[in-house]
Amino acid sequence: MTSIYEVSSNGRTAISTELVTEKEQINENSRATNGEIEQLVTVGETKSQLRPVAKGVYITIHGHFYQPPRENPYLDAIERQPSATPFHDWNERILHECYRPNAFARILNDRGEVVGIVNNYEYLSFNIGPTLMTWLERHDPEVYGRILEADRKSAERLNGHGNAIAQVYNHIIMPLANKRDKATQIRWGKEDFRARFGRDPEGMWLAETAVDYPTLEVLIEEGIKFIVLAPSQAQRCRLIPTPEIVDPEWHEVGGAQIDPTRPYRCYLNKTAAKVGEKVAFSQKKEERYIDIFFYDGPISRDMGFNDVLSSAGHLAGRLGLAIHGDHRPSQLISVATDGETFGHHKYGTEKCLAYVFTEEFAKRDWTVTNYAHYLSLNAPTWEVELKPVTAWSCSHGVDRWQEDCGCGGGGGWHQKWRRPLRDALNWLRDELIEVYEEQGRRFFRDVWAARDGYIGVIQDRNQENIARFLANYGCRELTPAETTDALRLLEMQRLALLMFTSCGWFFEELSRPEGVQILRYAARAIELAADVAGVQLENHFVELLAKAPSNVELFKDGAQVYRHQVLTSQISLQQVAAHYAISGLFTTYPKHERVYCYSADLKDYHLQRMGPLTLAAGQLQLCSEITLESTEFVFAVLHLGGWDFHCCIQPFTGRRSYVQMKEHLFDAIKEASAAGAILAMNEHFDGKYFSLRDLFAEERHRIMRLLSQETLLRLDQLYSQVYRDNYGVMMGFHRDELAVPQELQVAAEIALAHRCLTEAKELYHELCDLSSDSAYLGLGHLTELEAIAKEANHLRCSLNIPEVKQTLEQLILRSLWHLLQGVDPQTAAMQIERIERMIALGNLLHLDVSLERAQEVYYFWLHSHLRDAEVPEGAFCPAWDSHQLRRLFQLGELLKVDVG
Q: Which residues touch 281 (CB under 8 Å, ≥6 apart)?
């Protein structure tokens, strides 16, 4: 008998001893003891093989966190999406509604005060799409870091098995992919996971849980231990044959009747040989298998579509209904849903998860686990056979991604476009394979090994890393031009995978953003193929798209969608240069600048203003960070005033011609003649020009706002004058309780909003002045803002000032951090008062200022000082006296943090 260790749900460790045999473990009539989590024993002479054993009730809630890649393939950045307003794009919106709230999930008391902040990822089983993780790493490193930290902490709690599992790279429907693409999707998913989490993935999430046996075969070849499927994907199951039970009965479970409380083993090619009257199953190496967990379908649906997440008690109660009362030693209650359910689809439900993970499950003596950990304790004793081709979101196999099956339809629209779209992209993929193999042999020893290894470049496009990649996979040392062609081919293949992202077929119409996005990937891949091999694939591709009927009369078919929404979004290097040249009139660029995924090296620049005209000319080198394609341009841009720009671009042909062009243009502008300047430009350029509308949307909108500022300032001054002149009249209307004329009310609201915004900007600049840390900074501007707020309320003005809301949130957070980090007792009272006044000002202006970030800073600072149950007198901020501490705790109450 040897000792075992046991980890309880609250994390404390106890020691006990016990003998467990495999036969005892699979005896489902033996009595289970909740709370006994793990037993590790060895037995001397017994013939039974012993292994870690699970006992009790285990809970796994899996979140599939994923957003389709939305980046413009020419810019490697997401452009503004108006439908996500007030956020820049949908990734940013869902970050604020879901990904961040789950990283800092609140537990509140009955007064609405924060008593705990929980990283839900530490308890959720989860997968996060690699493309989404890349976006998070760029745009919110704090949340990204919390996710990585959560996996580390869960691994520490669960014997080395972290909560995170991998995902096929860009969410393609695996049964519809060829074998080579299946392998790359898995290899890229594994490598991306390894680079982020620092370990090999044990499990992998399949897009839409779409699976067939060829997919299982590749998963097994790539060392994936388990996957998660819907119960409807199983066909039949039985006990795994043993010497005692040589031919167990199969149970048909095709109607989603499979028991989801246990793991199953799925064999690819199990062999058997008769020995006498018994069947002995061979244990040869060719006997390959993968383990499968099936989530509880009814509870998972209730989480997404009913009120199960309305409270922790409700969720725990619903999970409890799934527990079998047959005294089996252990069982796993497993549910799975889109991770965006927790906060985005169902607002605030991350709080339910936080409480149920840390409080409710422990009360019931249930253990929060993940699939890998449970599998380490409870190896499958049942095997399963799957239906041939299935997915969790289509009852017709995988027809949702290739046929007019009705899934995802709405409003009477058909999906007859799905099959032609699939056929067109399959044709393009096969054509691109020929280009890649034929051209790639010039650069790579093994073209497909190079594609699999390209994930390392996708993760880090540093030129040194690219050089290492080419040294590893190249067949020889490449010239710069050959390096560009090699990278073009690899990028072409990356886009050939991205164009099969499942979201393109998921909904009811081809012209939706998801369908347009995958066509943009296809268009860029076609362009790269033409650059490298000179092949023209676009015409036939468009012919195939013409067979895809659209539900929208404007487009008619996929060919028109391509022409109207895809071709118009293509970007050339000349357009990047024009973007740089025009925006340079409003931005002081350094010598070296990054413009989206291009590096811009300004060789020469000269600008001259003459009355209403502005002329700039320069020499610019642009280099793509993706393909290392580099071109040197000369440019000239003439601003004629307002929104009227005339910009010309051409390749740099030599210093002499560039200097002559520049001298001629600046001589012409001295005449202050727009026509003369344009004629001079046309003499040196090809006549083609770019205007403001040719800029990328983000920069175009910024310049439009800048050009409008002078007009808006004049309007603000006009409205302010109207307001001042008629203030007494407005007061008269209010005294007599009469409706103020709309013209006067609008004038008051615009005038007060302008004053408020001006003072808020001044307050921000003063408080962010790093040269001074005076506690008196900003008090004058705060006083003026308070007066404006009282005036607006008195006149019943509704001020549209989102910028002021954002400014106050930033200043409250910054001031609190400075207070807590600086810990200067001499100025603490004034700093606290300033923070309190800013919070009150937000309320006075009815801005609904978010204090969440400030709550987090205060909460973690407070608990870092109160880590122990009891703090010796004087140990908590010894430099602070009791009065200052009371003021500090009062600030915590104002921030809605429990300081009791």
A: 241, 270, 271, 272
In degrees and rounded to multiples of 5, residue 416 shows phi and psi of: -65, -15
* Cβ–Cβ under 8 Å, residues 751 and 720: yes
**Which phi and psi (to 5°) does residue 661 adopt?**
-60, -45
In the prediction, which pLDDT does 9 show?
33
86 preceded by a cis bond (ω within 30 of 0): yes
Q: How far apart are CA 43 and CA 1, in angstroms?
A: 7
- Length of the chain in residues, anyone? 900
Q: Which helix (H) or strand (E) is 713 found in, with range?
A: helix 697-725
Torsion of CA 88, 86, 698, 80, to 10 degrees: 50
The proportion of the chain whose per-residue pLDDT surpasses 70, expressed as a percent, equals 90
Q: Which amino acid is at 535?
A: V
Phi/psi of residue 438, each to 5°?
-70, -45
Q: Please give the distance of CA 694 from its chain centroid, rounded to a whole number.
A: 29
Which range, of 84-98, 236-250, 399-413, averages the lowest pLDDT? 399-413
Residue 409 φ then ψ, to 5°:
-80, 165
The model's pLDDT over 852-878, given as tens digits with 9 standing for 90+, comes to: 999 999 999 988 876 543 444 445 555
Closest CA to 364 of 405, 289, 313, 306: 313
* 211 DSSP β-pair partners: 390
CA distance 48 to 819: 64
Residue type, position 129, single letter: G
The token duo for 683 is 């003499």
Question: Mind listing the pLDDT tens digit for each residue in 459-479?
Answer: 999 999 999 999 999 999 999
Reading the block at residue 541, the tokens are 């591709």
Domain ranges of the chain: 57-390, 411-569, 573-701, 726-894
pLDDT band with cut points at 50, 70 and 90 for residue 286:
low
Angstrom distance (rounded) from CA 503 to CA 858 = 41
Looking at domain 57-390, does it have CATH number 3.20.110.20?
Answer: yes
Please work out, in degrees rounded to the nearest 5, the angle formed at the alpha carbon of residue 683 by the alpha carbons of 681 and 686.
Answer: 85
Question: Helix, strand, or coil here: 557?
Answer: strand
Contact 622, 652 (CB under 8 A): no
In 3D space, the residue among 265, 255, 244, 349 whose CA is nearest the CA of residue 307 turns out to be 349
Sign of CA dihedral 228, 230, 233, 234: positive
Per-residue CA distances from 627 to 461, 462, 568, 594 (Å)? 9, 11, 22, 15
Cα separation, 646 vs 637, in Å, equals 6
Residues 170 and 495: their CA atoms lie apart, in Å, by 10
The DSSP 8-state label assigned to residue 49 in this structure reads P
Strand partners, 116: 107
Q: Nearest to residue 342, comparing CAs of 379, 391, 304?
A: 304
pLDDT tens string 162-172: 999 999 999 99
- Angle value at C-alpha 189, between 385 and 465, nearest 5 degrees: 155
Longest CA–CA separation in the chain, Å: 109
**With 90 as the cut, is the pLDDT of residue 278 above it?**
no
